[in-house]
């Protein structure tokens, strides 16, 4: 029935199967929407946030999806600015994933601010001394860039592309895409960095505090670097997942290999910088603020924030995937590659968790104890909501848009 | 956001923050305007309608 909308020369699942899959995911989506409405109608008392946790699960989710969505800006930068032409075969999917990640971040923020009707205040009455203002500016403008990058793909739908004006519009947008991609890279550099800067300037919380250059703490640069490293890994992870679900090869191995190699070297250089930063912070910065390293990682209930979390972030999800991704042998083995990109994505999420939640958990005064937090079901449901939305958007885009330029060649229809 | 807001001050913070914002918005706005106008002109000339 919808065959006229499906790209030429590719095979898709029967419509009933597609609609049934959408319906199943929609149940999760509706659960999230219900929780979202509760938060909007009844207020933030639906959450387990309190005076100790003004930032909680939502802000972690925000930082995590923004880092994972970094694949869009960095792949775009490599494709259009550096000139890695091979990446044209995966850039559409990177943009789609970035679009989902950033729209999810904005949706979560719309719930988190409590009064979405006043969301525009941050633009209109901007506090120019706040890193979060910079984040709000760059985040929303970069989302506009991602929308501009996603539009040509929509216009390339088999039926839309028959309309001369839309065909010409898509063609013209492709022609100047380098301008948009460069703008996106500029915006991403600053908002990824400023999200790290928020923790780095907290001089009253030595776990997050870092020294730096001028007004920028080291966390500013580490956050941008880690997003550029882990973002492409996440793009590969979702691509491989899509291939497993569809049972097809959608992108040639040499394309994946190039992106994985770049991601690996970015990850390796990042993790070396991260280790250097951690050592300096542990032995110089934190002691200068009256804190010993052990105070950050011991005597918390259930060892939730034990040394294991530092080891997991730096070694298991940092050094290990970086070493796999920089070697030809590691990249050419499908299972090892999938493990590496999964670990890299988990690593960046773990880093964001630590820099948001652990910062707030650690007692700052001798009479205080650890502040522990567990999210309410409404917080969990609204955090799962963007995942369901993302799955649905990927399903629709994959079915009706030419997301993978190499799909037809790799999967010829008899 | 604009100099007409009551809290606006012509200091470095406002100029850098809002300068950056308007600079990025201007690039996106002008880029899209160019694409739309060129698409309209191309269509009027009879281009398009076929895959390239």
Assembly of the depicted chains: heterodimer
Unreliable runs of chain A:
none
User: In the CATH hierarchy, what is the class of chain A?
Assistant: Mainly Alpha
Order of helices and strands of chain A: HHHHHHHHEEHHHHHHHH
Distance between the termini of chain A: 20 Å
Counting H and I runs of at least 4 residues, what is the number of helices of chain B? 1
Largest interface: A-B, 33 and 32 residues
* CATH architectural grouping of chain A: Up-down Bundle
Number of helices of chain A: 16
Helix content of chain A: over 70%
Q: Roughly how many Å is the radius of gyration of chain B?
A: 18 Å
Task: Give the beta-strand count of chain A.
Answer: 2
Query: How would you classify the helix and strand content of chain B by structural class?
Result: mainly alpha
SSE sequence of chain B, one letter per element: H
The domain count of chain A comes to: 1
Classified in CATH, the superfamily of chain A is Formate dehydrogenase/DMSO reductase domain
Low-confidence stretches of chain B: none
CA-based gyration radius of chain A: 22 Å
Strand content of chain A: under 5%
- Mean pLDDT score of chain A, rounded? 93
Word description of this protein:
The complex is a heterodimer of chains A (414) and B (52). With 414 residues, chain A is mainly α. Chain A has helices at 15-42, 57-68, 70-82, 91-112, 121-124, 131-155, 164-175, 177-200, 218-246, 253-288, 293-297, 307-326, 328-332, 334-361, 377-400, 407-410, and strands at residues 212-213, 216-217. Chain A is globular. In chain B, 63% of the residues lie in helices and 0% in strands. The model of chain B has no long low-confidence stretch (mean pLDDT 87). At the A-B interface, helix 6, helix 7 and helix 8 of A face helix 1 of B.
């Amino acid at each position: 029935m919808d065959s006229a909308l499906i790209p030429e020369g590719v095979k898709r699942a029967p419509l009933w199967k597609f609609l049934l899959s959408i319906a199943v995911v929609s149940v999760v989506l509706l659960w999230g929407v219900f929780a979202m409405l509760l938060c909007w109608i009844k207020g933030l008392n639906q959450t387990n946030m309190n005076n100790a946790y003004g930032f909680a699960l939502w802000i972690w989710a925000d930082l995590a999806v923004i880092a994972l969505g970094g694949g869009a800006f960095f792949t775009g930068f490599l494709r259009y600015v550096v000139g890695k032409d091979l990446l044209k075969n995966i850039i559409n999917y990177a943009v789609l994933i970035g679009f989902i990640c950033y729209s999810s971040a904005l949706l979560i923020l719309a719930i988190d601010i409590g009064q979405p009707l006043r969301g525009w205040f941050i633009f209109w009455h901007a506090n120019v001394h706040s890193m979060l203002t910079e984040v709000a500016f760059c985040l929303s403008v970069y989302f506009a860039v991602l929308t501009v990058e996603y539009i040509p793909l929509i216009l390339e739908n088999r039926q839309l592309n028959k309309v001369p004006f839309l065909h010409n519009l898509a063609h013209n947008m492709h022609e100047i895409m380098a301008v948009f991609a460069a703008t996106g890279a500029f915006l991403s550099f600053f908002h990824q960095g400023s999200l790290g800067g928020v923790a780095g300037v907290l001089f009253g919380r030595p776990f997050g505090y870092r020294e730096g250059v001028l007004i920028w703490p080291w966390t500013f640069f580490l956050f941008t670097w880690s997003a550029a490293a882990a973002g492409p890994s996440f793009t590969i992870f979702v691509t491989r997942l899509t291939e497993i679900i569809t049972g097809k090869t959608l992108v040639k191995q040499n394309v994946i290999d190039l992106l994985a190699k770049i991601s690996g070297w970015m990850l390796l250089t990042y993790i070396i910088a991260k280790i250097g930063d951690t050592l300096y912070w542990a032995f110089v910065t934190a002691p200068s603020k009256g804190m010993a390293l052990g105070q950050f990682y011991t005597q918390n209930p259930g060892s939730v924030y034990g040394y294991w979390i530092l080891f997991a972030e730096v070694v298991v999800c940092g050094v290990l995937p970086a070493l796999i991704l920089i070697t030809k042998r590691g990249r050419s083995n499908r299972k090892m590659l999938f493990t590496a990109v999964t670990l890299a994505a988990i690593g960046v999420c773990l880093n964001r968790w630590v820099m948001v939640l652990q910062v707030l958990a650690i007692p700052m005064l001798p009479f205080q104890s650890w502040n522990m937090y567990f999210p309410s079901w409404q917080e969990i449901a609204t955090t799962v909501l963007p995942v369901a939305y993302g799955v649905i958007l990927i399903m629709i885009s994959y079915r009706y848009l030419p997301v993978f330029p190499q799909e037809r060649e790799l999967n010829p229809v008899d | 956001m604009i100099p007409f807001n009551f809290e606006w001050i012509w200091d470095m913070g406002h100029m850098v923050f809002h300068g950056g914002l308007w600079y990025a918005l201007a690039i996106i706005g002008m880029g899209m305007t160019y694409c739309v106008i060129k698409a309209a002109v191309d269509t009027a000339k009879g281009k398009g309608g076929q895959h390239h």
